[in-house]
Amino acid sequence: MIIPALDLSGGHVVRLQQGDYARKTIFNIDPISRIANHAKAGAKYIHLVDLDGAKDPTRRQHSLIKQIVKSCPVPVETGGGIRSAFDIRNLLDIGVDRVVVGSMAVSHPELVRGWVQKFGANRFTLALDVRLTDGIPYVATHGWLKTSNTTLDMVLRHFLPYDIEHILVTDISRDGMMKGANNSLYAVFSKKYPQLDIIASGGISSLDDIKAVAEAGAKSVVLGRALLEGRFTVEEALKCWPDA
Fold this sequence. Notes:
The chain has one domain: TIM Barrel, CATH 3.20.20.70. It has helices at 31-40, 51-55, 62-71, 85-93, 103-107, 109-119, 152-159, 183-192, 207-216, 225-228, 234-239, and strands spanning 2-9, 12-17, 20-27, 46-50, 76-79, 98-101, 124-133, 136-141, 146-151, 166-171, 197-201, 220-223. The protein is α/β, with parallel strands linked by helices. It is built from eleven helices and twelve strands. The chain has an eight-stranded parallel β-barrel with strand order 1-4-5-6-7-10-11-12, surrounded by four helices.
């Protein structure tokens, strides 16, 4: 599946380079109209990142997300600073299809497993952002500000018995750099965990990059900066993806 993404901060559409809030680009784009255009072009799902909420949960852009979800003709997933069942219920109640959980899946896996049991595995996407050390992917937390001692494999093994399916994996070193995705990472984990919807993210800059991600075995791909910069369209991306 091709999944257009928008990162939101201060009510604006933005992009960070490698998760660095000091390296932020602001785009003069209305998020509601941009998402409507993506859906009209054939996108069947939208990914929203609340960067303010990721950095400080008290600054969650709840009203903006509510407006977007209400106006969007296709399902939306979103996250950023999810810390409680209350946060999850608030997002589900405004129509969010899946809640994206990141740091808490690493720091408090027992709590997150409880959320999965309470709300259902189909209401979650685990966002596992990694930095590679000696070829081993370690999961970053706190809006990419910290790197844990927990590997991607360790997190996945925690959640497989709970029927979690959607796993968004981002190589931070590639994100926003427009130098291609880490396809070797996706190839390894798609082969190791064929039951999972491995969602690729980070570094996509061309249609060839999209084709390479599909060939690596990822079942979905999130597209952010490349669409914002007009490097290709949603329609062109859909033509590159099997069973789009």
